[in-house]
Amino acid sequence: GYGMGTVRVDENDLLAVMNAVKEARRRCLEGGRAVLMEMMTYRVGHHSTSDDSYVYRERQEIEDRKKNVNPITRFRLFRVTESWGWWNETDEEELASRLRRDVIKAFKRAESVKKPDLGDMFTDVYAE
Amino acid sequence: MLARRLRSTFPALSRRWQTTASTTAIESPSAGGHPSSVASSQLFRMTRESALRTPGISWQDDESDRNIVGGRETRKMNLYQAVRDALSIALAKDDSAIIFGEDVAFGGVFRCTMGLAEEFGRERVFNTPLTEQGIAGFGIGLASMGHTAIAEIQFADYILPAFDQLVNEAAKFRYRSGGHFSIGGLTVRTPTMAVGHGGLYHSQSPEGFFMGASGLKVVIPRSPIQCKGLLLSAIRDPDPVIFMEPKVLYRSAVEQVPIDDFALPLSRAEILIPGSDLTLLTWGTPVYHCESALRLLTSPPPSLAPLIPPSLRSAKVELIDLRTILPWDIETVVESVRRTKRLVIVHEAGMTGGVGGEIAAEVGKRAFLRLEAPVRRITGWDVPAGLQFEKFNMPDAVRILDGIMETLSY
């Protein structure tokens, strides 16, 4: 190999990632050697709106993976957050609606901004 | 194995017919709509008669000595269908021909390879990993063993990682072996030029970067008939060819295309509209903006009329499509400029280092005393091809008209 320790982690498991990185960091600092971490995840959407990944995978595969892939949902399944009083449904709803408002506000502000000057097409090519 | 032999000896023509026929349904315009200059162009050959009489056509079938076009058929095709038709003929007639690239197996992101994997098998039409350097290198290796390797680079913008393979390996293969080895079987197809929403990495015209790679050929078609004939010539050419297809024309350029096997010559420019007062030289998408500019010149709309002196409106401009960019047809261009004494070159790529500079210098050398105005280049600006203001970056009919007028009245 390359003299590196390696570890493969389920990237969508918050606690697993935390533990793995903690251990990897300890090994780096104590051993003076690099650690390679392979973070396994899954891309649910298409590469872009112009692509159709259904040509390469079954829709059922995506549906199955979707259930398991959201790290926030999985963490909350532990019920840790609720039982420790860190988070609850009310907090969730308030955060969701606040964020939605913020996004819409940003959108509206951006839409009212005038198009840049045509000369902007020529700026930032070089430092000078 | 047996199936493949049967397929190549069986009249694959009828099979091809079906593949092409099933996908010639009416096409809706792409997301940005058809460019108006393409939609209103008179340069497309829309009848069977005019298509069969395309200048320079050389029929490649058994009856090629028969110049009678009477029995030959045409079919309405857009540019990507013409590409597919050419590829289908190439694979049907050449057992060693294979097609490979990213996403080509299911039909390609621009549908250029639709149905080919089904028709010729996945051993002959297959996907590669995401690596342009690998695609080019793999193609060079295949071609060096005598195979016909038709590689696809998904966007011309991505040909840059393959630049080392193409310039240092492909271009020099024949030269460094003193002619003992060659890779003529290599053809690299790639969609090029702006499309309206491509942004920095889906709009570039990189043909200029290859001008220094002698040993390579670079070809850019403007229409379905041109595309099919030039692509078949490129595939069969004894030198490696980079074939750049203007992507905005894939759906908007439509013509009646002869369904038989035919070739159009490489390294020969085509005079589309004869003229005597100025030579307008271009290739690819800008051909149609040039055509629009000429229409604006002869009959300007009320908004432009005050700006165009009537004396200029009767100028006869000669429009030339260069077609092969490297090696380019010096004779045709210089002969034209010696007659008209004025040259305007149009291309989407930026001015600095663009092909226009090379042409201007060569024409200046050969026709210096004939010229009555400096050679004018109407090009993209020297900025990356950004998403914003693309319309002001790529040369359009008005800017081309401005350059023509300035050169006419120098």
TrEMBL record, chain A:
Enzyme's top EC category: oxidoreductase
InterPro entries membership: Alpha-ketoacid_DH_E1_comp, DH_E1, THDP-binding
* Keywords linked to the UniProt accession: Oxidoreductase, Thiamine pyrophosphate
Example GO molecular function term?
branched-chain 2-oxo acid dehydrogenase activity
- Recorded source organism is Suillus placidus
Which family does the record claim for this protein? Belongs to the BCKDHA family.
Its name, as the record gives it, is 2-oxoisovalerate dehydrogenase subunit alpha
Task: Describe the task this protein carries out.
Answer: The branched-chain alpha-keto dehydrogenase complex catalyzes the overall conversion of alpha-keto acids to acyl-CoA and CO(2). It contains multiple copies of three enzymatic components: branched-chain alpha-keto acid decarboxylase (E1), lipoamide acyltransferase (E2) and lipoamide dehydrogenase (E3).
Q: Where's the Dehydrogenase E1 component domain? A: 1-117
> What Enzyme Commission number does this protein have?
1.2.4.4
As cofactor, the record names: thiamine diphosphate
* Single Gene Ontology BP annotation: branched-chain amino acid catabolic process
Pfam families, per the entry: E1_dh
**Reaction catalysed by this enzyme:** N(6)-[(R)-lipoyl]-L-lysyl-[protein] + 3-methyl-2-oxobutanoate + H(+) = N(6)-[(R)-S(8)-2-methylpropanoyldihydrolipoyl]-L-lysyl-[protein] + CO2
From TrEMBL, chain B:
GO MF term list = branched-chain 2-oxo acid dehydrogenase activity
Keyword S-adenosyl-L-methionine among record annotations: no
Which GO terms of type biological process are on file?
Answer: branched-chain amino acid catabolic process; generation of precursor metabolites and energy; response to nutrient
The record's section on InterPro entries has: THDP-binding, Transketo_C/PFOR_II, Transketolase-like_Pyr-bd, Transketolase_C
The answer to whether keyword Acyltransferase applies is no
**Class of the enzyme per the UniProt entry, highest EC level:** oxidoreductase
Pfam families listed in its UniProt record: Transket_pyr, Transketolase_C
The Swiss-Prot or TrEMBL record lists the needed cofactor(s) as: thiamine diphosphate
Provide the Transketolase-like pyrimidine-binding domain boundaries: 77-252
What does UniProt give as the signal peptide span? none
Reaction catalysed by this enzyme? N(6)-[(R)-lipoyl]-L-lysyl-[protein] + 3-methyl-2-oxobutanoate + H(+) = N(6)-[(R)-S(8)-2-methylpropanoyldihydrolipoyl]-L-lysyl-[protein] + CO2
Q: Which domain of life is it from?
A: Eukaryota
Q: Which UniProt keywords apply?
A: Oxidoreductase
> What protein name is recorded for this chain?
3-methyl-2-oxobutanoate dehydrogenase (2-methylpropanoyl-transferring)
